[in-house]
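User: For my dataset I need records formatted as: sequence, then structure tokens, nothing else. Please produce one.
Assistant:
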Amino acid sequence: MLELFGSVISMGFLDSLNPTAIAQLLLLLAAIKKKRNIWYFIIGMALCNLVMGLAVYYGAASVAAGLAFRLKERFPDGFFAVSAALGATLLFSGAFMLIRLILKGANKSPRDSKAASAAEEKARLDKRGARLPSGELSPLPLLLMGGVFCFMELTSAMPYFGFMVILSASEPSLPVTVFFLSAYTFIYILPLIAVYLGYRRLRDLGPIKRLESALERVSSFILPAALAILGSLILAGLLGG
């Protein structure tokens, strides 16, 4: 038990020092208007971390991987065709969206940009001058994004799998396993919670506002770039395999 407690604290802390997750959180904070909705993103990461831990511990992940491998072996042409279609769709969709964003920005003069920003800001205000949400991400997409980002990061999370090896060697009961995985997950998301709470307290400062403005411009390129990269990786894996 003492070894497990030590592993939870040490490896959970190492895993939590994740600049990629913190950068994703900051970009989403800049993109969404209801800042409190970022909790759904954090909860999505926590749920994925916990569920994947249980799946790895009880062998469900290896069963799913084996099933996918058998389907690939039994229907190689169909698997290749579906994967190629998915990769090409993601790649061309992301590239098309990126090109549109680039052309839209290139065709805008500084005066047009200022006028568009003023019109957008005016549209977000009601008669009393209160800001209205615009282009808001709903809770479900944020929850799913948190889960997907966490799942992608788990492929290279060495502290996480090191902890799973120690946990498996101890062979604890189900309640003890859930307890330690939950404790690890809490430590994992603790920096994200700290960044969000710190952002809420400091968001009215000039440097934070400038950072948020810069991140808001960058955030519109995240989804197209992610789609294009994911599609490229799928196609590269098919061609390489």
